[in-house]
Structure formats: C-alpha cells, structure tokens
Amino acid sequence: MSEIRMTGELRTDYDCEAIGFPAERWGEAVFKIGEEEIIFEVSVEDNVIISIMAGEDAAWKGTLKGLKKILKGEIKAR
C-alpha cells in the first residue's frame, strides 16, 4: 500500500472547503481566471519542490527552502 506523504486543502471566500486530499508524490491546485490558469504544484518525492505557473510562458520551479528565501528577500528569483 502507498504511503500518504502529504495532504492538500482548498478554501474560498464562499465558505467552501475541501480538505484531506491524500498524495504520495505530488499535488496540484489549478485556478482559472477567464482564459488564464494559475497552477501551484508541490512535489514531495526527494526534496520538497514547488512549481508556480501563470499561463504558458511564466513559471518558477525550485525547492521549498529556495522559495522561502525569495519571499524573505534573501535571494532574487530568476
């Protein structure tokens, strides 16, 4: 049997909530705004890898540790 290594949750301002999505290796949340998509993906295979995609031509992918450093202003995103 597979090991659940991560769970996902999604909440909205309409008091909608979905919790407990089990995942062994990765999870993805997709938000659609008109024709655009914003996608957040989390992988827990070896290291925790975060991918953020906005449309076809804008994306960032790196480690959780790297994302935290970007958000704290310790390093710049490429």
Describe this structure in words.
- The protein is mainly beta and 78 residues long.
- It has a domain at 25-78.
- The chain has one helix at residues 64-71; strands at residues 6-11, 17-23, 26-33, 36-43, 49-54, 58-63.
- β4 and β5 (49-54) form a beta hairpin.
- The longest helix has 8 residues, at 64-71.
- It is globular, with a radius of gyration of 14 Å.
- The termini are far apart.
- 0% of the residues are buried.
Provide a brief overview of the structure.
By secondary structure, the chain is mainly β.
Write the layout of secondary structure elements.
Layout: E1 6-11, E2 17-23, E3 26-33, E4 36-43, E5 49-54, E6 58-63, H1 64-71
Antiparallel strand pairs: 1-2, 3-4, 4-5, 5-6
Instruction: Give the proportion of residues in helices.
Output: 10-25%
| Alpha-carbon distance between the two ends | 39 Å
- Structural class estimated from helices and strands: mainly beta
**Roughly how many Å is the radius of gyration?**
14 Å
Total strand count, please? 6
- Return the average pLDDT rounded to an integer: 93
The general outline is globular
Spatial order of strands in the largest sheet: 3-4-5-6
Oligomer: single chain
Order of helices and strands: EEEEEEH
**Share in β-strands:** over 45%
Tag the structure with descriptive keywords:
4-stranded antiparallel beta sheet, 6 strands, globular, mainly beta, 78 residues, 53% strand
